[in-house]
Amino acid sequence: MDGPDREFIMRTELAMDFNFTVQHRIDLDNAFGRLIVQHLTDISDQLASIAKQVKTTEKTIMVSIQDLKTKAASQLAAITAETDVVNAVKAVVDGQNEKLAALKQQVADLIASGSVDPADMQQLSDTLDAIAALDTSNAAVVSAAVAAGTPVAQPTT
Fold it and tell me: What is the model's pLDDT at position 3?
């Protein structure tokens, strides 16, 4: 083409999995042609800025996800440790209940034999009552603590 027409080609590539190319012949020697080129340049600059913002937001989201994954793993470890403690407490309580049952059986055997001093029997009975009361009290404390740390089950739909 003869004369003052020059080819203006604008290429914009954004790192967002798309490319576009605008090709148009514009007379850069007249004001309208220069205005069009200016607007196209402004649009290209705005698109580049948007692409940069998207990349920054994407990085922020990825950091947030990583942070959440780390917190979730930490919480899982804490709950696992708590589970170990709860199981240990349960084993102690079960062991105490077994010992108390064995003591009660021995008392029943002594009573059946008829060779027990009534004062000794009363002292033993008082001791067993104290053990049972303390065991019940301890179990209530542990049960309340577990219940306080256990979230309410959500209904499933």
Answer: 43
Is position 82 within any domain?
A: yes
Number of domains in the chain: 1
Q: Please give the average pLDDT of every successive group of 10 residues along the chain, which has 157 residues.
A: 45 50 69 82 86 83 80 86 78 82 83 81 83 78 72 58
Q: What is the mean pLDDT of the chain?
A: 75
5 touches 25 (CB < 8 A) = yes
Is 156 within the bounds of a domain? no
3-class secondary structure per residue, the chain: CCCCCEEEEEEEEECCCEEEEEEEEECCCCHHHHHHHHHHHHHHHHHHHHHHHHHHHHHHHHHHHHHHHHHHHHHHHHHHHHHHHHHHHHHHHHHHHHHHHHHHHHHHHHHHHCCCCHHHHHHHHHHHHHHHHHHHHHHHHHHHHHHHCCCCCCCCC
Any domain includes 105: yes
pLDDT of residue 154: 59
